């Protein structure tokens, strides 16, 4: 169990990592929707070999992103003390797959500074505790891993799904259109790996169609390297099992 003193020391270290300081709020604060971004660990680990350690066998949170704005208040630092009661769920459902040794604090700091400070326009998300707590709530309500399993869409080393079938199956449950994203693997020929799923919410936190691209996955910086994820092309896609990342 992480002690408050230890968290405080880590927080102090984070504040010294050289992130932008005291630049105030950006001019462009307008955004229209929130994007709940899920990662499939087996695909993330396939792309960044050597980084992942004991990744979970369920979809995890990448972040809750306003669709157009970022880093709205650079003078609002991340403070892990404010979410210490959320840490068990944060570690389980929102892990830093690429840097497991840092207890995910740098990853969460990145998500707060880049996305949380913009989401904080909403009363429901206007503190660090509210932002991370509501993100966890939305993730649990969506229950993506369970939904896919119930739909008969399960990881397999040799079974290919049609992207349209996955998208349509999710529409049948959520009643909105998700964004299904893939990583291209060179395996003699290009193979699409199912890697990321986005489900969108209005400002009153109601599900709505992800009909327009929000933040492309490849824009991740700082705590995360660029990920070569893109909207899946219609056609076959592999949903790789966790124990078969070296395809």
From TrEMBL:
Keywords: Disulfide bond, Signal. Residues 1-22 form the signal peptide. It holds the Pfam family Ribonuclease_T2. InterPro entries: Ribonuclease_T2_eukaryotic, RNase_T2-like, RNase_T2-like_sf, RNase_T2_His_AS_1, RNase_T2_His_AS_2. It is found in: Lysosome lumen. It comes from the Eukaryota. Belongs to the RNase T2 family. This is Ribonuclease T2. It comes from Odocoileus virginianus (White-tailed deer).
């Amino acid at each position: 169990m992480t002690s408050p003193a230890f968290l405080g020391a880590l927080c102090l270290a984070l504040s010294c990592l050289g992130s932008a300081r005291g630049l105030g709020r950006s001019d462009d604060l307008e955004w229209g929707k929130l994007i709940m971004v899920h990662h499939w660990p087996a695909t993330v680990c396939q792309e960044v070999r050597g980084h992942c350690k004991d990744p979970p066998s369920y979809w995890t949170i990448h972040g809750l992103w306003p669709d157009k704005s970022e880093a709205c208040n650079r003078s609002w630092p991340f403070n892990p003390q404010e979410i210490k009661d959320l840490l068990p769920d944060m570690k389980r459902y929102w892990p830093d797959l690429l840097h497991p040794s840092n207890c995910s604090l740098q990853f969460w700091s990145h998500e707060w500074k880049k996305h949380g400070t913009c989401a904080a326009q909403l009363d429901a998300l206007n503190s660090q505790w509210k932002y991370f707590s509501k993100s966890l709530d939305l993730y649990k309500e969506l229950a993506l891993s369970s939904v896919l399993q119930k739909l008969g869409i399960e990881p397999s080393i040799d079974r290919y799904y049609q992207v349209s079938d996955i998208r349509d199956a999710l529409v049948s449950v959520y009643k909105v259109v998700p964004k299904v994203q893939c990583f291209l693997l060179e395996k003699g020929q290009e193979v699409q790996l199912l890697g990321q799923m986005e489900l969108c919410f209005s400002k009153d936190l109601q599900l709505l169609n992800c009909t327009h691209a929000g933040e492309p996955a490849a824009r991740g910086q700082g705590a995360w390297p660029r990920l070569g994820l893109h909207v899946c092309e219609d056609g076959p896609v592999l949903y790789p099992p966790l124990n078969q990342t070296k395809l």
